[in-house]
Amino acid sequence: MSDAPKPEAAATTKAPPRAPRASRTLAFAQEELRLMSALVVLLGVGVFFALPFVLSIGSVVFLPLTTAVVLTVILSPLADRFARLGLPNVLSSLFAMLIFLMIVMLALALILQPAVALFDDVPAMVRQVVARFSDLRDEFSWIARIEREFGGLTEQPGTREVVLATPSVIEQLAFATPSVLIEVLLTILMSFFMIESRVHLRQRLIRHSNSFDSNMKAAKVLREVQDRVAAYILTVSLINLGVGVIVAVGAWALGVDAPVMWGGLAALLNFLPYVGPVGMAALLALFGIGTAETMALGIVPALAYLGLHAVESNFVTPSILGARFTVNPVLILLALSYFSWIWGVPGALLSVPILLMITAFFDHVGRPNLVGFIFGEPLFSNNVLALGQED
């Protein structure tokens, strides 16, 4: 008889191990995820540096569109409140837009009307400031002598100064007014239609798709971003209104002309973190030195405002907003410089709401692991890729 092995034994000896194959599959999946993460990072960096040129060139289109999106996020809760009272969607959207326009027109009237009245006094104030600093410079005449000596050493004879004629302020305003009016009209129209279509957008997200869970998550993210930005803007507006009232009362008590205008400027500039208060303090210092009898008295309004801003920014605003609205100051300054570079003053005003929308989105869906990615970890962890599975 032959000693042939049984089939069961042969099958048992020839079965390949599965552990190495599983480990290779896992390693391949990790490498693929890391490659996709690297592509996402490179694409994001490219978009970050290329986007300003596209947005600045097409500012006539993109600035009204971005402003309309921000206004839609801010005014949609107000329109929803009107809708809960039984008003039709069109009237709710129209009333929300009209209330916003009335607030803007009232603020401009309170600020611009006294500013026009004080415009005639600007040359006298400038001469007064120059005279005050001339007196201050005479006290440090030794510095001026050193400067003249260095200037005599580096001066080249025979040089000429060429002064180019530039358009006056009135000519610049005349050229810019039609474009500004068109952009404002486009912004108002787009904001109204976006607010009016918010209900249809929510219904479309929930109903018209194959994946009901994904649509519910998208609607939840949209609601979270909208509520967070709207609550932040409303809270900050009330705080800035309080700052404006205090500045107006303080300006009236100190005898500063047009206290309502200064209060409105303080409230408006306080929407620009860091940059706005510095500009407000500089304006108060310039106006105070130009109108007060002495430089010491002229600097008092600026110092009083800086003290008020220190209390508001370090105690009042953090205690009211809390940790939910806390944003890294570096991100705020980066957003201010980024959007100011693109759109100037309108971009600076839109920078914080845009930053809040982005941070609210990432807070809800998960943030990319940028630090871990540098050290070899995936850019998006598994719990980020599996969006909202716990909901």
Describe the structure.
The protein has one domain. 18% of the residues are buried. Mean pLDDT is 75; it is low at 382-391. The chain is mainly alpha-helical. Helix 9 runs antiparallel to helix 13. It has 17 helices and no strands.
> What's the main sheet like?
none
* Measured distance between first and last alpha carbons: 68 Å
Uncertain residue segments:
382-391
Beta-strand percentage?
under 5%
Average predicted confidence as pLDDT: 75
**Which percent bin holds the helix content?**
over 70%
Number of helices, where a helix is a run of at least 4 consecutive DSSP H or I residues: 17
Whole-angstrom Rg: 31 Å
Provide the number of structural domains. 1
Q: What is the global morphology? A: globular
The secondary-structure element order is HHHHHHHHHHHHHHHHH
Number of strands: 0
Kindly name the structural category. mainly alpha
